[in-house]
Write a structure and sequence with these properties.
The protein has about 240 residues and is α/β, with parallel strands linked by helices. The protein has 2 domains: about 15-155, Rossmann fold (3-Layer(aba) Sandwich); about 180-235, DNA polymerase, domain 1 (Orthogonal Bundle). The protein is about 45% helix and about 10% strand. The protein contains 11 helices and 6 strands. It has a 6-stranded mixed sheet, with helices on both faces. It is flat and about 55 Å long.
């Protein structure tokens, strides 16, 4: 990464940093709304993400860019990199599925245009669902750049230094017929279905903890981030708060 800078939580938490490569209408709107809200901004090279304030990172994608990043697999790498660097990650998508379907002619396939449109529709919604279920990233889908800019600057406005994190007062107890699955399901990102798959594949909680995050990632729906979280919880010596 020589010559590049990764902006992270150690920067000025009041400064909204915009990737210097962002020349879009969205970037201009973000600067306009930030000025109205008295949010200081700065443009500089950000290695990961498009907009950053403190420990919050935004990856902004037009509907067309979003669907293209799904087809080429780039989206999942970007989200994983964001999760490694920032505490709070948001992918903001602006535009409609109809906008995304305009790239159908660029898809190499023997399918008809109508069939390609259906494929894009399903891929688009499927990816948002996967982000919700399988990652710690928050997806936000808005109709246009203006709404995206308003969301980004609204978050920047209410993201003060050392903000209080509101936690639920009651934690729902998970109960299955297998106490081992109950234990695993308490870990963030691990559903009962994933817990059952882990136990079926590895045999016991002890054996799960003896494997690497990469080995756990072979279970459907468990990526490197969730896999590492499982390892940390099962092998950590410090108190774990759920």
């Amino acid at each position: 990464m020589m010559g590049r800078r990764v902006y992270n939580v150690y920067g000025d938490s009041r400064m909204l940093v915009i990737d210097s490569r962002e020349k879009s209408q969205l970037a201009a709107l973000v600067q306009t709304y930030a000025k109205r809200l008295n949010i200081p901004t700065n443009k500089e090279w950000i290695e990961i993400g498009d907009y950053v304030i403190g420990d919050v990172c935004f990856e902004a994608k037009s509907a067309q860019d979003f669907i293209m990043s799904i087809f080429d697999g780039r989206l999942w790498t970007q989200l994983d990199n964001m999760d490694r660097v920032y505490e709070t990650n948001i992918v903001i998508i602006y535009g409609s599925i109809k906008d995304a379907q305009r790239i159908s002619k660029h898809i190499k396939s023997n399918l008809t245009k109508d069939a390609r449109d259906v494929l894009i529709h399903n891929k688009f919604l499927g990816a948002i669902s996967k982000i919700i279920l399988d990652t710690d990233t928050k997806p936000v889908w808005v109709p246009n750049e203006e709404q995206a800019a308003k969301i980004i600057t609204a978050v920047a406005k209410v993201q003060p230094l050392n903000r209080e994190i509101i936690k639920p007062r009651i934690v729902k107890r998970i109960s299955t017929t297998d106490l081992r699955a109950d234990v695993l399901s308490v870990i963030k990102g691990v559903s009962v279905k994933k817990a059952d798959a882990l136990l079926s594949d590895f045999g016991s909680i002890m054996e799960i903890g003896e494997h690497s995050a990469g080995e756990l990632s072979r279970i459907d729906g468990i990526g490197p981030t969730i896999g590492q979280r499982i390892i940390d919880v099962l092998n950590g010596e410090e108190k774990v708060i759920i």
